[in-house]
Amino acid sequence: MTYDYDLFVIGAGPGGVAAAKRSAQYGVMVAIAEQAQAGGGCVNRGCIPKKLMVYASAFARLQRDAIAYGWSKSEQQFDWQRFVTVRDREIQRLQQVQRQALQTAGVEFINERATFVDAHTLAVGDRKITAAKILIAVGGKSIKPAISGIEHALTSNEMFHLRALPEQIAILGGGYIGVEFASILRGFGCEVTLINHEHCLLSGFDADLAAAVHRAFDHRGIQTLCNTTIKTIEPVPEGLRVTLEGETATPLVVETVLCATGRAPQLDELRLENAGVEAKTAIAVDDYSRTSQPHIFAVGDCTNRLQLTPVAKAEGKAFADTVFGQQPQVVHYDYVPSVVCSDPEAASVGLSEATAHEKLGGAIACYQSEFQPLFYSLTDRPQQSLVKLVVEANTERVVGIHMVGDHAGEIVQSLGVSLQMGITKQALERAIGIHPSSAEEFFSLERSPSAT
Ligand SMILES: Cc1cc2nc3c(=O)[nH]c(=O)nc-3n(C[C@H](O)[C@H](O)[C@H](O)COP(=O)(O)OP(=O)(O)OC[C@H]3O[C@@H](n4cnc5c(N)ncnc54)[C@H](O)[C@@H]3O)c2cc1C
Ligand SMILES: NC(=O)c1ccc[n+]([C@@H]2O[C@H](COP(=O)([O-])OP(=O)(O)OC[C@H]3O[C@@H](n4cnc5c(N)ncnc54)[C@H](O)[C@@H]3O)[C@@H](O)[C@H]2O)c1
Do residues 37 and 123 make contact, with C-beta atoms less than 8 angstroms apart? Predict the structure, then answer.
């Protein structure tokens, strides 16, 4: 049987693009379908526009810091529409970079939606295309809880296309997206209420890290309501009336509600049943990203693994190496660093203290320090940084690294390599740091009183 392509990839986000390029390097004929813009959620509705908003919103506080350092006060206004114009120009440039990279690699880019006709055939626009192997990399979509009036709440997608910044916003969900948008919007001067049904923000992270972000949000005037959720949302002349249930019940009236309660695979229009690919909420895959059909694979947010760009890319490359490079590769998820791009930034790699307790039977020690970085000594901001190590007590092996503070993401991802290589607390103590810096604190940490 001959096919039109050796590999057909559905979705040109980070997972699909990485897989398509690497597969083409192995000399196979590859095409990729994208129903929207090259770059996927990451470039168009996620990491990139979000991080540009983080940068934009930081200038207000940096201006105040500059005055503390002796700069003159100057009147400056933020122009949201001007920012949107320059941001979107950069996103269009990145879309082009993605398309160019595919073309250079010899991958055919087809700007159409693909749906399964049968296990080897796809309907792509008005064409029928066959492929020996198919990779599904269709990403995810926001999910909203069943709350009366939830249709009035925006998701992160719409936050990038607001006509103007809201004066007040209620954000439902205290995970990555809720915390990041709370921080960004507060930076722009909005009144922010962050509502989370769990007892703390960032519940998957180390409890000390989550508490440090919560404290910093209190100082920044972000109102955080934990053990609380939204009961109803109803339009009123002043905006949206939000009733609450749980620990806090006082209703709010806000201009905008953002729903940030998690994301799920985007499988609705793929017609997976036509190809016999098993999926419940996510596409089921084995360690090599193979679905229930031996010639169909899936990577990235449409599977039930970590929803992060570097993970989708790693899965895409591992798929290509395994299937076309004859070098079977399994992606390991234990040491994936991650960052919450809030102010202050929070980053982690490895185990939290609570997870280390569960996994290692309680035989752990924790080392941590909270300190004021030098930069803030001249400013009026009570900004504290936190650094924390979780260590296996009998071997001294470091199993978790956590930080809250400026550049936490950059610092933690570098230290994450040593964690993966099995570094011990003693070896870290022998390391010579850079002074003055925040990262040097990791090399001289005292055992924390809470350690077991
Ligand atoms: C607001 C926000 C901020 C984020 N910030 C970060 C961050 O800072 N760092 C980080 O690591 N991760 C971040 N993420 C997560 C990251 O964006 C995702 O993990 C990553 O984009 C997943 O890549 P993917 O290739 O699996 O899917 P996606 O990037 O979602 O790409 C899938 C592509 O498939 C296309 N597609 C879907 N169905 C079809 C079809 N039938 N035919 C053709 N094309 C189709 C879609 O249009 C899309 O372009 C963020 C996510 C959000 C929502
Ligand atoms: N910086 C980054 O790397 C980054 C940034 C954004 C998103 N992402 C990825 O996107 C994924 C989705 O992000 P997210 O923030 O939507 O999901 P999340 O899983 O991180 O957080 C969802 C939050 O919503 C809360 N919640 C759920 N239902 C609720 C309800 N009915 N009432 C109140 N609270 C409720 C949960 O307790 C949780 O705190 C993340 O898991 C992450 O993998 C990563």
Answer: no
- Atom index in ligand 2 nearest the CA of residue 173 equals 24
| Alpha carbon separation from 182 to 50, 53, 169, 262 (Å, rounded) | 12, 12, 9, 15
| Residue 451 pLDDT greater than 80, yes or no | no
Condensed to tens digits (0 to 9), the pLDDT of residues 301-353 reads 999 999 999 999 999 999 999 999 999 999 999 999 999 999 999 999 999 99
Distance in angstroms (rounded) separating the CA atoms of residues 109 and 111: 6
305 CA from centroid of ligand 1 (Å) = 13
Q: With a 6 A CB cut-off, is 308 part of the ligand 1 pocket?
A: yes
CA distance linking residue 318 with residue 90, whole number of Å: 29
> How many whole angstroms from its chain centre is CA 179?
11
Say what percent of the chain tops pLDDT 70.
Answer: 99
The predicted pLDDT at position 381 comes to 87
- Show the domains of the chain with their CATH numbers: 5-141+265-323 (3.50.50.60), 150-261 (3.50.50.60), 344-443 (3.30.390.30)
252 close to ligand 1 (CB < 6 Angstrom): no
The whole-number pLDDT of residue 135 equals 98
Which segments of 2-103 are extended strands (E)?
5-10, 30-33
Q: Does ligand 1 have an atom closer than 6 angstroms to the CB of 12?
A: yes
0.90 surpassed by complex ipTM = yes
pLDDT given for residue 452 in this prediction: 45
